[in-house]
Amino acid sequence: MSSAADPVMSRVVRHFLIAALLLGIAPGLEGAITMDSSGTAVSADAFTHNQWLGNRIRLAEDAPFQTSTSLTLLMDVVYPTPFLSAFILGDIGAEPNKADIIAQFDLDPASAAVAAAPGGVTATQLVFNQATVPAGVLEPGKSYWIVAGVTAVNHEAQAGQQMGLLDWSWASSQITTSDGWTVDDWIAVSNTNGADWNSFAGAPYAFGMTTIIVPEPSRALLLVIGLAALLRRRRRIIPIALTPLVLAACQPAEKPESAGIAVVGTETIGVEEFQAAALRRGGGDPSSVDREALLDELITESALVQRAQALKLNESAEFRRRQRALLIAMLREKQPETVEPAAPTDAQLKALYEEMKPMLQMPAARHLAVLRLTENRERLAEALKRFQPLPPDPARRGFGALAVEFSDDQDTRYIGGDIGWLSLEEIQRRLPAPVAKAALQLSRPQTCSDVIVDGPSAYVILLQESRAAATQAFEKVRPRLMHEFNIRQAADEARKRKEDERKGLLIEIDSALLRSIPLPSTPPTPLNTPPLPR
């Protein structure tokens, strides 16, 4: 670059930086949701394989636009997994919208090492900040879901090795919130990799999130265009008068009929506009407003807006979407707040209990322990001979110390071979067929099978306890019933609100056209910005 062009470039850079400062759109890192990990308790439910858990959060209508940079989840890693991911998904009522991925993060290297390590870690903060897709913008007045799940499974794992079993810890109370975020008590669970969801009763999970405040959509577009123009020109400076954009802006504009404080191109800065800006700047204290500096800011803003319009940024689909979102947020600010719904009566909860009885069944289950040997498997006969004469011991877990001596299953050998409570369906799905058959034939607690050979390994299975299928008592499931009642009540309110919002409008749908529209496989570019002439 020639030395004569250097001052020109310096002035251009300086002007854009000053404009950015005046517009107040420099993004800043802020903690959006602070984790409250005091007094946490491990949840009664764990997720594994293709199961996902989610907690709904809401951004206040007066909060700024934000984009997420990381998530922190408090989890107990029971069995390792390298396939753990976290998401921010859109909201479609009482469940997450898997098709609306706002952000997706994988574990950072340090947390990935913890999640892939052997079990025994308790209530560890796992940090997700490795973005797999660019994070979208979180808009004021909208609800979103923090979701965690195992996105792939090691199906080659040997019997007894459960890949990806984690407990998401409960918070002892409502999670501390800031920056306009509140944490809802709506929790959902999916057993089909996020394809369908059911409500899940309980307190909010422990998690945290950090975000970056982003500028208002129109101003962000202008700043990006200004900086893009500088970057595209790189080492060459073309005289500004040669660009069609600035040529158009420098043309003598027709002076507006009503004169104001200042005329900028085709726009007039009027008295009311200046007064509104002064009110925002001074917060009701006129003595704190620098009139000349404020007018200079408005002139810069007007100039940038006109240049953005010359590039037709205001005609892009992304601009219209953000503009509509702001209009909706402003409309809802003027609507009266929703009245707090009444608490359900016992009669309503009991009616709901009768309706939900099929879903409140606790399946028949068995508490099992296993010994497994692959090398020197004939030694299992000795283990069986030593265990059978042992007297009952309520404090003994599974096979006790024998598991350390006679089992090579690294996930269970140090806990007596205990593999936990399994439903009859889980026994058949997770254990080798001969072992599952033997486990189902055991009838008395604290009895074990003979040595079972399956392929290269030999097994002995122990029945510790068993329970029959039963419907959970009303009082035990009362919190879940109240949660379900609230979900249904909120859904009814949302349906009524949607009907009111559409009342009096003619709505016609071209179903054939709707079905024929090809859907894009990749997200569109947020800014449809044509390159500046060189």
Number of helical segments?
A: 14
Fraction in beta strands? 15-25%
Biggest sheet architecture:
13 strands, antiparallel
The rounded Rg comes to 31 Å
Stretches where pLDDT falls below 50 for ≥5 residues?
1-9, 12-29, 154-162, 217-226, 228-258, 527-534
- How many extended strands? 22
Amount of helix: 25-40%
The assigned structural class equals: alpha+beta
How widely separated are the two ends?
15 Å
Q: What gross morphology would you assign?
A: elongated
How are the SSEs placed, and which strands pair?
Layout: H1 5-23, E1 29-33, E2 46-47, E3 52-59, E4 66-79, E5 84-91, E6 96-107, H2 109-115, E7 124-133, E8 137-138, E9 143-150, E10 165-168, E11 181-190, E12 198-199, E13 207-213, H3 217-233, H4 244-250, E14 262-264, E15 267-269, H5 271-282, H6 291-310, H7 317-334, H8 346-356, E16 361-362, E17 365-373, H9 380-387, H10 402-406, E18 418-423, H11 424-430, H12 433-441, E19 447-448, E20 452-454, E21 457-467, E22 470-471, H13 478-502, H14 511-516
Antiparallel strand pairs: 1-13, 2-10, 3-9, 3-11, 4-7, 4-8, 4-10, 4-13, 5-6, 5-9, 6-7, 11-12, 14-15, 16-22, 17-18, 17-21, 19-21, 20-21
